Amino acid sequence: MTDLGRQQAALDRAFMRQALNFGARGQGTTGTNPCVGAIVTQDTADGPVIVARGHTQPGGRPHGEANAFARAVSEVAGGTLYVTLEPCAHRSIRGATPCVELTLLSGVRRVVSAMEDPNPHISGLSHALLRTAGLAVTVGVLEGEARHTHRGYLMRVTQGRPMITFKVARTADGYAGGAGGTRLAVSGPEANGWVHLQRARHDAIMLGIGSVLADDPLLTVRLPGMAARSPIRVILDSHLRLPLASQLVKTVAQVPVWVIATESAPVEREAALVAAGVEVMRVSAGADGHLDLGEALQLLGTRGLTRIFSEGGPTVAERLAVAGLLDEVIVSTSPNALGQPGIVAVRPALAALLADPDLYTLAEAGFIGHDRFEHFTRTG
Predict the structure, then answer these.
(1) Residue 154 lies in a domain
(2) What is the pTM of this model?
(3) Which of 45, 82, 185, 249 is the most exposed place for a label (fewest CB within 10 A)?
């Protein structure tokens, strides 16, 4: 590669990283659509400058490219479009103009795309159309980072289910709760604030009924000015034990509650929950009598969920680990010890997965306040 080529490659990476960071603002708000970031640059005597940027808007429309073109501060014709996912090429039932057409109409001369869209309606078609129209197209810039950003969308398109990020908090001696399930205030205020931010960046929070019965949680986003970003609350409740007096049910008018039960759960309990405003869905039961987690996640995929943040407790974590359904795992460890036996936070199956570098990679580690965080991602 020539010096000029290396310089251009470095510029492409820098602008694509900005597009990825900008697009990530939409996480948790774009429904079934990916949170795409788009930037348009124009060459000047002092080098390229950004003249437009956008990201997929709440509800999934407008898409990132359309949002960028609409918000341009100067002419985009002749510029370069950086986009974190291949532009869409098909018309939806809403009749919006496909992003590939908007790109052609904009007059940009070059498109830099982080990755091809695996959606069979698109999958390389847009890139081919742009090249046929005479645009220069570069694909694969920061593809690894783009795949991570769009992981939920990619999982739903290719595997039919949302991605699962599981977060568990433990004491310094490894416990998530006291003896008999006694609730512990494990994390510090900074770590708790971070958890609320993660809730806002996901489509749903998922919890097992055991944790609900033990803690009676609210599961909303309680950061200043972000209450409206509270995601759907999904409860795994095989036998429909969710109390009508719980905080979840009491606040269902403000934030939706979806309960997933087995087909044999009591009909009268379903009727009572539905009358209170809760949505109840049913799936098959596994050999252990609990609901089939794989089927439950496929069901949530059909409902358009792409990113789930699970705070479901050690039992749910272990079941997800055994089923091979954990995409990311976050373990936060308090500096404070319980000092006596309690509920073990990371159980054998999950511990074995996280210890195997062929299965999971420690992507990052550090401190939030006084709590140490370790972020594991599925390898590959």
Answers:
(1) no
(2) 0.91
(3) 45
